[in-house]
Amino acid sequence: MFSNDRPFFAGIRTIVQKMYSCSSKKLAPYGFNRFEMMVLLMVYEDDGISQKRIVSEAGGEGISIGIAVKSLSNKGYIERKTDQDDRRKLRLYVTDSGRKIRDEIMDLKRTVEESIVRGISSEELCLLDEIMQKIQNKILLNDFEG
Fold this sequence. Notes:
mainly alpha; Arc Repressor Mutant, subunit A; 3-stranded antiparallel sheet; 3 strands; 64% helix; globular
């Protein structure tokens, strides 16, 4: 099914690990780890996102996400507030300090992403995106048969 009998997902895992490694080096000056970066990017994208949703989208890394949220809050980049409609939910918001570094963090993200895809045509990237969407949809629908 796969070239050289190499499992497809082993390749994805290797790519993700290398991305984390590259990102970690670039994040060092900010004192962020990969989970903190992931949380911060998701809060930038959706100010007021619930911590539960971040855990869900991160693939079940609940403890690591919780630690990252606490760390970012202690560093003053995000704040945790109880949801007004459901007091069991915790919502995350970017603080003024978090907004001050947003452009730098987004530039860092862009730089890492661009370095990873350099040399790959836009057509190939579009095809990869389509394939990854199909895989993601199958996983979300638990449709592994057809």
